[in-house]
Amino acid sequence: MASPLVRWLAAHSPDQLARILVNRPDSVHATTGSRPAAPPADLSALAERLQRPAALQTALRTLPQPGHELLGLLVHLGRRHRPVPRATLARHLGLTSDDPALAGALDRLADHALAWPDQDGALHVPGELARAFPNPLGLGADAARLYRETPADRLRQIAVALGRPDPGPQRDESYAAVRAALADAPAVRAVADTGPPDARDLLHAMAAGLPVATPDAARSAAQDWAVSHGLLAFSGWRLEMPAEVAVALRGPGWTPPFTPEPPLPTPVPVPADAVDREAGAAAHAAVQQVTALLDTIAATPAAALKTGGVGARELTRLGKAVGCPPAEARFWLVLAHAAGLVGAVHDRAVGYGMDPVHYAVTEAHARWLQLRPARRLTALLRRWPALAPAPLAAHRGGFGPAGSALTPHPLDVVAPRLKTGLLALLAALPDGVGLPAPFAAGPAVGWHRPMDTPLTGDRDELVVQLWEEARLCGVLAHGALTPLGRALTAGADLGPVADALLPDAVTTALFQNDLTVVVPGIPAAALAALLDACADRESRGNAGTWRFSTASVRRALDDGHRAEDLRAALAGIGTLPQALDYLITDVARRHGHVRVRAAGSVLHTEDPALVAEILSTRELAAFGLAAVAPTVLVSPAGLTETLAALRAAGFAPAGEDAAGGPLVQHRPAVVPAPEPEPGPEPAAEPEPPTEGADALHLAKLLLTAPAPADPVEQARQRLAALTPRAPRGGLEKAIALHAERLGGAARALLADCVQTRRDVHIEYVNAGGRRYTRLVSPITVDGEFLVGWVPPLSEEVSFALGRIVTVTPA
Question: pTM for the complete prediction?
Answer without folding.
Answer: 0.70
